[in-house]
Amino acid sequence: MTEPDLSHAVWRKSSHSGSGEGECVEVARADRLVAVRDSKNPNGPMLTVTPTEWHTLLTSIKHGDFG
């Protein structure tokens, strides 16, 4: 699988990311994927998922499925 082109991605920080607490997540749409990265390490590894997988993850989090 080839890497998605993120050169024009617009990254958004989660509204739940704390200011100065070190737990910041950024999300961007790219090449029919959703990319997620740690805002403290923007050149580090990122997770890419389909929009359907992203929606499923967010729904699970909102329902408290992860504790």
TrEMBL record:
Pfam families recorded: DUF397
Name of this protein: DUF397 domain-containing protein
Source organism superkingdom: Bacteria
Domain DUF397 positions: 9-62
Lineage, highest ranks first: Bacteria, Bacillati, Actinomycetota, Actinomycetes, Streptosporangiales
Region (Disordered): 1-23
